[in-house]
Amino acid sequence: MIEGVKHIVAVASGKGGVGKSTVTANLALAMAAEGYRVGLLDADIYGPSQAQMLGIAEGTRPEVVGEKSFKPIQAHGLQAMSMALMVDISEPMVWRGPMVSGAFQQLLNQTVWDDVDYLFIDMPPGTGDIQLTLAQKVPVSGAVIVTTPQDIALLDARKGIEMFRKVNVPVLGVVENMSLHICSHCGHSEPIFGSGGGERIAEQYDTRLLGQLPLQLSIREQADGGRPSVVAEPDGEVAATFRAVAREVAAGVEGQSDEGPSISFSE
Predict the structure, then answer these.
(1) Partners of 116 in the beta sheet?
(2) Would you give per-residue pLDDT tens digits along the chain (267 residues)?
């Protein structure tokens, strides 16, 4: 197990652009709001975004501990670590796979996590090197899959579920992002990207739909501005949805710990 960490939850998507990082930041903040000690590791080496989403000033560097360890940055009550805290984020990371996997392992193992109940890992999209490294080298308690309702996103989400199943990581459930757009002028709701996709995929893979989030301008603006919805509007509907998802994740992980390696849910 990673020292200082009780449970690790990977947040993944089969493809980019589905709002995985925004969901990860809000889910971590929601878990902290539920009273847990929470860490957040941004494993998207090529496109780290968590530092900005958590309002960490550009150029911030972690405090070095001993010869080769460093303290996570505190942000909104979370312990956070990201490649963005190590390099100039305006420069592209032109790295081959083994370098990326090595950087990920260093971020994970050389960070001095302080008694974290849940460490959320914001995974890069796809099913490549970092996903394999995580599965092989890290005791992951479970994975959350983020998708949008459109067919092409669901196709890739299936690949993500299959990948975790193959490496024996329990899939805790699916979060359907951008599931419904509600017009800010007239209140008319419209499923721009289709409907029912999250429910279908959860049913097909015998997992559960953890929550559905609207396609809403404020969610994007708040995350971009460094104050995600859970801290910007703690009493709002979006925050309530994320806190419900956080409770589901906690129940799934703790239930799995009691039962051993298999995981099952019942109503």
Answers:
(1) 5
(2) 789 999 999 999 876 778 899 999 999 999 999 999 999 999 888 778 899 999 999 889 999 998 889 999 999 999 999 988 887 766 766 767 778 888 888 888 899 999 999 999 999 877 677 877 877 788 899 999 998 877 676 777 888 888 888 888 999 999 988 876 776 677 776 666 656 666 777 777 788 889 888 878 889 899 999 999 999 999 999 999 999 999 999 999 998 765 444 333 333
Instruction: Give the CATH superfamily of 5-259.
Output: P-loop containing nucleotide triphosphate hydrolases (3.40.50.300)
Please name every residue paired with 171 in a beta bridge, in sequence order, or none if there are none: 143
Per-domain boundaries in the chain: 5-259
Confidence (pTM): 0.88
